[in-house]
Amino acid sequence: MKIRELLDLERFINILQFLTRISIKKDSKFDPDLGKGIVFFPLVGLVIGLILGLVYYILRLVPAFYNNSLVTGVLLVLVEVVLTGGLHLDGLADTFDGIFSYRSKDQILEIMKDSRMGTNASISLILLIVLKVCMLASFIDKDMVWPIVLMPVLGRFLGLLLTYRTRPARENGMGNVFIGKCDRTSLIVSTVFVGLLEILALGLTGTSIFGLNQMISIILVLLSLFITCILAYLIKHGVYKKIGGLTGDILGCGIEVGEMIFIAYIFILVG
């Protein structure tokens, strides 16, 4: 990918509007080369994270929310759902319904297209939302906003990893515009971008992990990149065995799981 494409503001806006409910250009047309903007996934995550951070600080001005981190956590999750339109949660539900149905490839893909929710979908949604609220509440208790801001970034970084050297499970599907479209340049640029954000977050807040010095604390947090890469590999490996490729639902599921694993890892480090 050329540098000019990495700085394509028009494509960033299209990616932002595709992944969220944020509307900037009303007359924006569908870009058939939208997949070339996969490098903007973590940046879209940063936009979402900054909005969550802003909402966090606004809520903290209200005594009722300042004294109730659990309610604040619920509201932050609600804001994220509104921003994304629940797109990735829908992917999570469909993926768990299909992949864990233990059916044939065609049957799994059919289940994932079904708009009805099964037991696996319901359980996965409930557990993820409850865990996310509890983790966020623990950060709120410590007045730590940076994990909340970075959560959507790491989730969408995992989504990007799932599009690197992968193939679609369906001939036609919404996710095909992204699946397999991430090239090496986009991967490197995105990884560096996310890593720099983590370094900046710890540098600005002076967060210390286990009472260790700043450099070791930064290294420990940067390990989240490695964990995300391992998680992406495991998802690819498991899904390929089931249906031989990826779908848009699986990308959405990966984003949600990526967010959850990141905040769970940070919770372990600072909890």
TrEMBL record:
PANTHER family in UniProt: ADENOSYLCOBINAMIDE-GDP RIBAZOLETRANSFERASE
Protein name, entry field: Adenosylcobinamide-GDP ribazoletransferase
Protein's membrane topology: Multi-pass membrane protein
Pathway the protein contributes to: Cofactor biosynthesis; adenosylcobalamin biosynthesis; adenosylcobalamin from cob(II)yrinate a,c-diamide: step 7/7
Species of origin: Peptostreptococcus anaerobius 653-L
UniProt superkingdom: Bacteria
EC code(s) of this entry: 2.7.8.26
Subcellular location: Cell membrane
InterPro entries attached to this UniProt entry: CobS (IPR003805)
GO molecular function: adenosylcobinamide-GDP ribazoletransferase activity; cobalamin 5'-phosphate synthase activity
Reported function: Joins adenosylcobinamide-GDP and alpha-ribazole to generate adenosylcobalamin (Ado-cobalamin). Also synthesizes adenosylcobalamin 5'-phosphate from adenosylcobinamide-GDP and alpha-ribazole 5'-phosphate.
Family per similarity comment: Belongs to the CobS family.
Cofactor(s) this protein requires: Mg(2+)
GO biological process: cobalamin biosynthetic process
NCBIfam families from the UniProt entry: cobS (TIGR00317)
GO (cellular component) term, any one: plasma membrane
Substrates-to-products reaction catalysed: alpha-ribazole 5'-phosphate + adenosylcob(III)inamide-GDP = adenosylcob(III)alamin 5'-phosphate + GMP + H(+); alpha-ribazole + adenosylcob(III)inamide-GDP = adenosylcob(III)alamin + GMP + H(+)
Keywords, ordered alphabetically: Cell membrane, Cobalamin biosynthesis, Magnesium, Membrane, Transferase, Transmembrane, Transmembrane helix
Lineage: Bacteria, Bacillati, Bacillota, Clostridia, Peptostreptococcales
Segments passing through the bilayer: 38-59, 121-140, 146-164, 185-209, 215-234, 246-268
